[in-house]
Specification:
Radius of gyration: 19 Å
Strand order of the largest sheet: 2-1-5-6
Strand content: over 45%
Number of strands: 8
Order of helices and strands: EEEEEEEE
Helix content: under 10%
Distance between the termini: 9 Å
Structural class: mainly beta
Length: 100
């Protein structure tokens, strides 16, 4: 069974036991529940409007990590202007435990 969930303004296609890196989630509990936008069974596909009623995707928080460094460069030719900025976003690793 597959499902499409949304978190942090992005959509992810997930299967049970997947480990995803998503935008930082501030949660007190270690388990999260998502409402799926789409559920794909072996026999049928259920499309939600906006979510599929009666189905939930359960995940647990594994760890908080930092993403890869992203560089932003500002450069002007023949003007001796060059600025380099770098940033690393904070991410949360989640593991999909069940799709019901």
């Amino acid at each position: 069974m597959k499902a499409v969930i949304t978190t942090g303004g992005k959509q992810y296609l997930v299967v049970k036991d997947d480990v995803l890196e998503v935008d930082l989630i501030h949660a007190e509990k270690k388990t999260l529940n998502f409402d799926p936008l789409l559920v794909i069974n072996e026999k049928e596909t259920l499309v939600g409007a906006p979510t599929v009623a009666g189905h939930t995707v359960t995940a647990e928080i594994v760890d908080e990590v930092r993403g890869e460094k992203v560089l932003a460069i500002r450069y002007k030719a023949k003007k001796r202007v060059k600025k380099v900025h770098g940033s690393r976003s904070k991410l949360t690793q989640i593991k999909i435990t069940s799709i019901k």
